[in-house]
Amino acid sequence: MRGSDTRSWSIVAMLCATATAGYICRVNVSTAAPLLMKEFGLSQIEMGRIFSAFLLGYALFQIPSGALADRFGARRILSIAAWLWFIITVLQTAIGRGPFQSTAAASLVGFMVFRFITGITASPTYPGSAQGVSKWIVPQYQGRANGIVIASIGLGSALAPPLVSNIMVLFGWRPALVVSAIPALIIALIWIRVKEPPHINYILSDQNSPDLTEPSVKNGNVNSLSFYLLTISYTLQGYVGYIFVSWFYLYLVQERHFGLLSGAWMSSLPWVLSIVSIPLGGLISDRLAAGKSGPVWGRRIVPLTGMALSGILISIGAHTGSAVMAAISLAFATALILCVEGPFWAMMMRIAGNKSGTAGGIMNMGSNIGGLISPALTPIIASLIGWENALHVAAGLALIGALLWLGIKPDSPPTPLKGG
User: Fold this and answer.
1) What pLDDT is stored for residue 319 in this prediction?
2) Which pLDDT band holds residue 216 (cuts at 50, 70, 90)?
């Protein structure tokens, strides 16, 4: 690809593989939830607390982990994280066995503690990757590079349900969680031999030419209205997206009455679609930004369209009486709410410049505050007004998040900075 060497794109692929392994460790408990609820007598609301414990640790440590990535680099931070994902996932399988046998209440606390720690160790994933992309990939291609990395959401979420459910049906949830941690171990071993490519920082010319300008380091501004609006919009996107990460499988099994295995395969559909939609959203955004739409509207069009259409499909899926139609509508809604990832992160890098690790941590913390709230709040809303109306609430928030993009733009037009 013009404007960057093969080594840079190879490490982007490595960033995607790392994030995918981490995402499998993130969502494995969601797939194992039916057996956990049965063995430990957990309710939907208690299971929501376990989901939210992960997100609390994940959200709280976004900014520190982004700052660490800015200081020590993506490779070192993500390598350590992968080792921890494997170790902690294996350790949590001890709950309810041997010396760790306990009451249902103590087991709930144990899972919450382990998930909180897992959230902390997962927090560098996307800020660290953003730091790497901002230094290894020129801005003309950062939308698609971020799309490739964040496609890990689709990859991890597509792989985890069939992987975990098939093993847990045969052998139980504990062996299933151990197997789900093996990709993290493989990634940790590979990082030992990986060397970082040279750092390259570029910005676009006034004419938005795809040709490269001189390398430079752009000082960022994370104190601007555009960055605040970007973070709020990403918070709303996180609220909606995490409903599907945490509850889609259980919603299909318990509310739409799919079987354990059929529900697992159906719950993989949105993530299979997202494997395509996330990189495609970044690619389209790059081309629009470099074309007649310009760097502002070129970045806006995909989030405006994707989040708005997602909200519409969520309401359709919530209202329909057909279980299959609901699953398909919500699957496409998930793919659309996630196709905006590349433009979000590319715009963040454009605003933040060399502070992209820290700014990515701030923005992702916002997303995960939304994600922290939605897994716990959604079943409460559903218990009060029903699952259909709970999903209508999510649809409305997706539309608001889309409209916020009308106020998001870089503080100044992109111009080449001269070195010297």
Assistant:
1) 80
2) very low
Interatomic CA distance for residues 119 and 188, integer angstroms: 17
If 0-12 CB within 10 Å is exposed, 13-18 middle and 19+ buried, where does residue 175 land? Answer: middle
* Cα–Cα distance measured from residue 19 to residue 37, given in angstroms and rounded to the nearest whole number: 27
CA distances from 120 to 12, 26, 62, 64, 67 (A): 23, 11, 8, 10, 14
**Residue 262: what pLDDT?**
64
Mean pLDDT of 227-248: 86
How many whole angstroms separate alpha carbon 85 and alpha carbon 185?
8
Least Cα distance to 49 among 100, 147, 116, 141 occurs for 116
Specify the DSSP class assigned to residue 37: H
8 A C-beta contact, residue 220 and residue 352: yes
Q: For residue 44, is pLDDT > 80?
A: no
Query: Average pLDDT of 138-162?
Result: 78
Instruction: Find the DSSP H helices in 61-201.
Output: 62-72, 74-91, 104-122, 125-136, 142-150, 152-171, 173-191
Q: Is the pLDDT of residue 4 over 60?
A: no
CATH code for 6-407?
Answer: 1.20.1250.20
Tell me the residue type at 59: A
C-alpha dist (Å) from residue 313 to 77, 162, 267, 308: 38, 25, 16, 9
Top mean-pLDDT range of 107-111, 151-155, 404-408, 413-417? 404-408
What is the distance between the alpha carbons of residues 374 and 243, in angstroms, rounded to a whole number? 6
Specify the amino acid at residue 283: L
Q: What is the mean pLDDT of the chain?
A: 80
Distant-in-sequence, close-in-space partners of 303: CB < 8 Å, separation ≥ 6: 233, 340, 343, 344, 401, 402, 405
